[in-house]
Design goal:
about 120 residues; mainly beta; 4-stranded mixed beta sheet; about 45% strand; globular
Length: about 120
């Protein structure tokens, strides 16, 4: 079998030992390697998106844009998304999920979406 694929130029290098947490932000898989600065090297929101695997909390303090969903969570249940300050998430939707999620705001979250439903839950586990 021959598989052919393309890797985006802005792809972030992940070590062989990296643990994947099962969700992505702006198309970047959240791993143990990038959890303290998920979007580092992408040119947007650097230092503004981090993940704490102990509490399952994704903290967003800077705005960013995604071609698809800002946050895609198809496997992690009980993800908490914490918004700090004034944040705008742009994309088709801000959250595409297959599990239960909590969104906490200590500020303002603006959803600039092209879909009619900025938060889409496929099913809750």
């Amino acid at each position: 079998m021959l598989l052919i694929g393309m890797i985006p130029v802005s792809a972030v290098t992940v070590s062989a030992e990296a643990v994947s947490y099962g969700f992505s932000v702006a198309g970047v898989a959240v791993t143990s390697d990038n959890r303290t600065d998920v979007l580092a090297g992408t040119g947007q929101a650097e230092g503004g998106v981090s993940y704490n695997p102990d509490t399952k909390t994704l903290t967003i303090s800077k705005s960013f844009t995604s071609e698809k969903a800002a946050i895609t969570n198809l496997s992690l249940n009980d993800l908490t998304i914490k918004i700090v300050g004034s944040v705008t998430l742009k994309g088709q939707m801000i959250l595409w999920s297959a599990g239960m999620n909590t969104i906490m705001t200590g500020g303002t979250l603006t959803a600039d979406c092209t879909f009619d439903f900025p938060i889409t839950v496929l099913y809750a586990k």
